[in-house]
Amino acid sequence: MNLTELNRIATAMVAPGKGILAADESSGTIKKRFDAIGVESTEGNRRDYREMLFRSKEAMSQYISGVILYDETIWQDAKDGTPLVKLIEQSGAIPGIKVDEGTQPLPMCPGELVTVGLDKLAERLKKYYDRGARFAKWRAVIDIGSGIPSMTAISVNAHALARYAALCQAAQIVPIVEPEVLMDGDHDIDRCFEVTNRVLNETFQELRAQRVALEGMVLKPNMAVSGKKCAKQASVEEVAEKTIRLLKACVPAAVPGIAFLSGGQSDAEATAHLNAMHKLGPLPWGLTFSYGRALQAAPQKAWSGKAENVAAGQRAFSHRARMNGLASKGEWQSSLEQKAA
Ligand code: 5MM
Q1: GO MF annotations for this entry (predicted)?
Q2: Which of 25, 72, 73, 223 to mutate for ligand 1's pocket (most ligand atoms within 8 Å of CB)?
Q3: Is the pLDDT of residue 341 over 60?
């Protein structure tokens, strides 16, 4: 393992002003997104949509540091025959790959899930590296509800995250470690804080136990937020203050960067929260975005599957990427959104 090189890539992934595009929707998830805009989820339509994003010159060259791909996409070519991975590299961004194989019910723990995909992962990582992937992603899902999460679910998911991260580093690939505490439910922000605290502590304990080099990874956590159905929604300032307090308590300064998931927040909320956190600096790690929905909802709507809308889709993507790029430096203002509208 070349740790200097892993650290160089991890640092580039969280460079100020830039963040990660999570375009690794599995077939089921992208179908849901396409259903919402009335587009059939065929292999060709998925390719055309992602090609539109990766050819968005302004977004990709100025605000996107890396792209997380799904297995289908990493092997696909653009309409002109250029591999989609090459389009990403040519824009100056780093290609990455989602390597988990989704979730399964966790035995003896009703309502809880464990992420799977460790079998043969070493072989798959080698193929992805040869294709150009320089980082990977594995997402664990922790739900908050009555009597859950159990320590069993937190512990087995943390164990799998660390096993994955060690395998990535051995294959010279930077692991994005994503333990997502879901924001579905009616819990308040303090319950989210308490559960995320337990999840992050357990995750770092496992990472250390399995000898993962913290300097060669990126953490992708949820923010401390109120559950979507909670009657009292925390303010932007409270989310920023509690999230930074949580991360400072749990994430060692050796970790080069933290890139948040958006988790179902609106585009504007995800941007405002990241921006507000940068007002609380200096911070010991790079802090940026690795959004899926909060970067793609607007371009999906603008594109709607029509070739004549490609330029509009790219404009919408570039706008959200720019807003989040500014937020990753604490330089975003809500008036910039109104101007664009
Ligand atoms: C883009 O969505 C990713 C893949 O999800 P599925 O495996 O369910 O299709 C997802 O892991 C994503 O990378 C993160 O949750 C961040 O995306 P959001 O939309 O939460 O920012």
Answers
A1: fructose-bisphosphate aldolase activity
A2: 25
A3: no
